[in-house]
UniProtKB/TrEMBL annotation:
InterPro entries: ClpP/crotonase-like_dom_sf (IPR029045), Enoyl-CoA_hyd/isom_CS (IPR018376), Enoyl-CoA_hydra/iso (IPR001753), Enoyl-CoA_hydra_C (IPR014748). It comes from Streptomyces hazeniae. Keywords: Lipid metabolism, Lyase. PROSITE patterns: ENOYL_COA_HYDRATASE. The lineage of its organism: Bacteria, Bacillati, Actinomycetota, Actinomycetes, Kitasatosporales. The keyword Ribosomal protein does not apply. SUPFAM superfamilies: ClpP/crotonase. CDD domains: crotonase-like. Belongs to the enoyl-CoA hydratase/isomerase family. This is Enoyl-CoA hydratase-related protein.
């Protein structure tokens, strides 16, 4: 297990046996509220993980017992001038974009509060595992702003435009059972089991071809906003990346030899 701290508020643990990287939000005194410093830490950690060949899948977790992340640090922002708020914006965007653009499949492990920017961090992941204590929502309009970490774009892609509009315009919080029913989260775990279940899921993903995983994610994400014909071209390009790779050759050989593949990751 390799563990590296990025700034004061984030650490990354890479399990070299399972090839799963755990990106851990660690600002417990503020319930992981996203300050300027924490945003920088998240962005830096994502940049490092993106280039780590040993990390095939990334799990986003929290050290706080009662919260995944409560969103932007409004206590910090309360002291900002307009100019200071403007200067913070690139750091916040880099954090959310960093998670969204990780080339590996990503799984969020959510418990307790995941609100505003905290929920946007989870929405930036490919799969969201939540336990029964989870409370999610995008309440930004209740404090005079809008979701600015991708929420207005990511939420409609999950639940449709009308449902996203209702949730964003009312600023309401949604508890775990309803969140699962609406598709705000994908897997509902028992209380306290979100991290364990997310890591188990990530381990199953990580047993597959790292080249295939990244190519499949690229096809999924790039094709989101395209019509079918354009999306199929994206898929074909991703297929060609994998079809002529060392991973494809090893996967076919392992299948025929009835053994586990040893992925070269090339």
């Amino acid at each position: 297990m390799r563990t590296t701290r990025y700034g004061e508020f984030v650490e990354v643990r890479v399990d070299e046996a399972t090839h799963v990287a755990e990106l851990v939000l660690d600002r417990p005194k503020a319930m992981n509220a996203v300050s300027t410093g924490m945003a920088r830490s998240v962005a830096e950690a994502c940049e490092a993980v993106a280039g780590d060949a040993g990390a095939r899948v990334v799990v986003l977790t929290s050290t706080h017992e009662r919260a995944f992340c409560v969103g932007a640090d409004l206590k910090e922002r309360n002291s900002f001038t307009d100019a200071e708020l403007g200067r913070q914006r690139p750091h916040a965007r880099a954090a959310y974009t960093g998670v969204l653009e990780l080339p590996q499949p990503t799984v969020a492990a959510v418990h307790g509060y995941a609100l505003g920017g905290g929920f946007e961090l989870a929405l930036s992941c490919d799969v969201i595992v939540a336990d029964t204590t989870a409370v999610v929502g995008l309440p930004e309009v209740s404090v005079g702003v809008i979701p600015g970490g991708g929420g207005t774009q990511l939420l409609p892609r999950r639940v449709g435009a009308a449902r996203a509009a209702e949730l964003i315009f009312t600023a309401r919080r949604v508890e775990a059972a309803e969140a699962r029913e609406l598709g705000l989260v994908d897997i509902l775990a028992a209380e306290g089991a979100d991290r364990e279940e997310a890591l188990e899921l990530a381990g199953r993903m990580a047993g597959n071809s790292p080249v295939g995983l990244r190519a499949a994610k690229r096809a999924l994400r790039t094709g989101w906003g395209m019509d079918l014909r354009a999306g199929l071209e994206v898929e074909d390009a991703a297929w060609r990346t994998v079809a002529f790779s060392g991973d494809r050759a090893e996967g076919v050989a392992a299948f025929n030899e009835k053994r586990r593949p040893e992925w070269p990751g090339e």
